[in-house]
Amino acid sequence: xxxxxxxxxxxxxxxxxVVFFGIAGCVLLAGVASGAAEKAPPFMLAPAVMLVVGxxxxxxxxxxxxxxxxxxxxxxxxxxxxxxxxxxxxxxxNISATTLTxxxxxxxxxxxxxxxxxxxxxxxxxxFRMNPFARNPIVDDLIVRVDAARRK
Length: 152
Prior knowledge:
Elements (H helix, E strand, L loop, with lengths): L1 E2 L5 H26 L1 H4 L1 H21 L6 E4 L3 E6 L2 E6 L3 E6 L8 E9 L2 E6 L14 H15 L1
Helix pairs in contact: 1-3
């Protein structure tokens, strides 16, 4: 059993949002408390916009990621919020991977919905690459193995 999801998922889903919203919220509250909201209203616009944009970005790119994905040979073991689901490779209909988002994302579309629905999204392990357009070797291997599993 080999872990194919990034080890940064916990940080991205739990730690970074607390820090991001904490700093933006403190700046906003400090502005209100100091009276800057009345003296210079544009000053208050930046942290408010940061809070809204940060929420939308994290909702669409980070919070839907599963916690861990393990490659078990003929299936994937997926963990999220203390629950586990085993997904046979033959049940994967499509694999889509993003290259220019941070964090990188892999979405598995399933033929039959599992415990986490008909799509499972995770951030794959990715090392340092000079080419930002390079394909992830874990994803390429997974695509080949899913195709082989469906042909059986």
